UniProtKB/TrEMBL annotation:
Species: Alicyclobacillus cycloheptanicus
UniProt-listed Gene3D superfamilies: 3.30.70.260, Periplasmic binding protein-like II (3.40.190.10)
Protein name: Prephenate dehydratase
Annotated ranges, domain Prephenate dehydratase: 2-203
Keyword Amino-acid biosynthesis recorded: yes
Top EC class for this record: lyase
Pathway(s): Amino-acid biosynthesis; L-phenylalanine biosynthesis; phenylpyruvate from prephenate: step 1/1
Biological classification of the source: Bacteria, Bacillati, Bacillota, Bacilli, Bacillales
Molecular function GO labels: prephenate dehydratase activity
Length: 311
């Protein structure tokens, strides 16, 4: 089975994809790279629409930089496409998060061997990675231009091919090794406990994941939350009334009308995944929300896997 991720090899997404394969025993998964996070989601939706069962791995959120909005926005856009029958939208709606895992993220400055910091004019990386190193860059390379590129490993690739010691990248130590470059002796991200949560997604009906997580999460998208006093309060109260703990709530603009949002909500599932009490409590929440005209798009009920970095 193919597993799509943000490439090229040696991105953090690559590390996460391999980790999912390890932990879930997906030994025969064939890892396939895409150039952007939206392209990862669309590659999976398009294959699924053609009847091919595939998986995708995307970053969802980071300790310091918050949500990886490219991931959430494409999920929101695909799920809310026009009402006319569209096989890709149908396929996208069948996609669910199957598992999540959180990786420690260590960013390294990647340069040509023996380059002096004073000679670096430009630093390339994924915007999330540049954001995670803002303080370090301000202190050590205040005059260097920061250029956003599609991924950390792509940044390392560009530096390697440019053969210009004035260029540096930010990314994994593995990327430095892979492209014949040097990594800084120490990581340079501003927060020492920097972590990113990744999702593995695919067709939940056909891909059964056997895994125990440290907890189970129900990820939802709420559309049409009434834009009136107490609208959001009304949308959230049923979760409280039925004993569900919300661990994340995030609004994103719907994209064509200022002041109107969709809400991404993570609910901690207090029961074993299919436990009758959980299902019954959740049905009650659903029926209250639906009677208020709120559309619920379920993004998955999945285990949060335990897995630290292999050293
Ligand atoms: O560029 C990469 O290496 C990625 O996998 C993307 C990404 C992200 O989008 O957050 C993944 C983890 C880190 O937080 C930095 C970058």
């Amino acid at each position: 089975m193919k597993l799509f991720y943000l490439g090229p090899e040696t991105t953090f997404s690559h590390e996460a994809a391999m980790r999912f394969c390890d932990v879930l025993g997906l030994a025969d998964a064939q890892l396939v790279t895409e150039e952007t996070i939206p392209q990862v989601v669309m590659a999976v939706a398009n294959r699924q629409a053609d009847g091919e069962d595939v998986l995708g791995c995307i970053p969802l959120e980071n300790t310091a930089q918050g949500s990886v909005t490219a991931a959430w926005d494409v999920i929101g856009r695909v799920a809310r496409q026009p009402a006319e029958p569209d096989p890709v939208r149908e396929a996208a709606l069948r996609l669910q998060i199957l598992a999540s895992l959180t990786l420690p993220i260590e960013q390294f400055l990647i340069t040509h061997p023996q380059t002096d910091l004073a000679n670096i004019r430009e630093v390339l990386s994924h915007p999330q990675a540049l954001g995670q190193c803002t303080g370090w860059l301000q202190k050590h390379l205040p005059h260097a231009r920061q250029t956003a590129v599609s991924s950390t490993a792509h940044a390392a690739q560009l530096v390697a091919t440019a053969k210009d010691p004035g260029l540096a990248a930010i990314g994994t130590r593995l990327a430095a090794q892979r492209y014949g470059l040097s990594a800084s002796p120490e990581p340079i991200q501003d927060v020492s406990g920097n972590e990113t949560r990744f999702a593995l997604f695919g067709n939940a009906r056909t891909t059964k994941i056997q895994a125990e997580g440290k907890r189970t999460t129900l990820a939802l998208m709420l559309v049409n939350v009434p834009n009136k006093p107490g609208g959001l309060l009304h949308a959230l109260k049923p979760f409280y009334d039925h004993g569900f703990d919300l661990s994340r709530i995030e609004s994103r603009p719907i994209g064509h009308q200022l002041g109107t949002y969709i809400f991404f909500v993570d609910v901690q599932w207090p029961f074993p995944a299919r436990h009758a009490r959980g299902v019954e409590a959740w049905r009650k929440v659903q029926s209250v929300l639906e009677s208020d005209g709120i559309e619920i798009i379920r993004l998955g009920l999945f285990p949060e896997l335990e897995c630290g970095r292999k050293s």
